[in-house]
Amino acid sequence: MGWPPASVDDLRVRLGASLFRRVAGPSGEETRARIHGTPGPRWFGPERPIRTVHGDASMFAGGLAALLLQSLHPLAMAAVAAHSGFRGDPWGRLQRTSTFLAVTTFGTADDARRAVDRVRAVHRRVTGTTAEGVPYRASDPRLLGWVHVAEVDSFLRAHRCYGAAPLDRAGYDGYVADAARIAQELGVEHPPRTVAELAEQLAGYRGELRGTPAGREAARFLLLSPPLPWQARPPYALLAAGALALLPPWAHEQLGLPYMPRSARPVARAGGVVVTRAIRWAMDPPPPDGITLPRARPGGSSRR
Fold first, then answer.
1. Residue 254 and residue 210: Cα distance in Å, rounded?
2. Distance (Å, whole) CA 141 – CA 120
3. What sequence ranges are listed for the domain ER-bound oxygenase mpaB/mpaB'/Rubber oxygenase catalytic (predicted)?
4. DSSP 255
5. Angle of helix 213-224 relative to helix 74-83, nearest 10 degrees?
6. What does the pLDDT look like over 92-126, one tens digit per residue?
7. How far apart are CA 219 and CA 257, in angstroms?
8. 112, 156, 249, 303: least surrounded by Cβ within 10 Å?
9. How far apart are CA 129 and CA 191, in angstroms?
């Protein structure tokens, strides 16, 4: 005997609301209304590729992959470990990051500017030294550049693999160029503007990357010990596998992760496809009676 339609719809609504609260926080609905309901010019129009990429459920896998990849820079990882509170308040950090992405991608130019100014003020306060005594500054343009290229590369790879409507090469070049606008506002010097430039800059950081105890501990926390109820662990495991499949093999080795043979990557990506489609199903419920409604998205965003 199957579920009655009302029960399926109710499950869908509850799952979508739960996911939205996780990524957007308790004030997510108010934040989403402000982002999309405030009139005024935007940095990016509705036709821009960054809206397509950042408004897709593939961002869940891309965000996890980005965190893992970013942790391979010892200075970036030292700053995160000392200042972000990712272990004590991982959901708070996720909500702040997703809100920043939503505001700068979909919000008014004034709100985007204020969001950037807040982040830059935080970066100016984040300074310290690594366990080896190497000084770091979160406002260092070189370090900001690494965080940016690792993030954009991960989001792009995730959208190619798991996006509802992958873009063509010109579309992804446009995405990289759009993301460069935000990067420059944050203090990145000469951010990449094409997919080819993104790959070149990412390769240019290879000599600075290595696995550290803090980075490997963060990877174990993100992959094996996330603060989730037991019911959410199986789908999260699929999401994690999908995120790992996005990382280059050298990143697996440096993070101390089990080697993923080439033959296993399609299986891991299949898991990523399944969980991304489930997230999309939960967060994009069909409108009742033909009415067009805003579509819930990661980061407190929605597309109209």
1. 6
2. 11
3. 52-274
4. T
5. 60
6. 777 889 999 999 999 999 999 999 999 999 999 99
7. 8
8. 249
9. 26
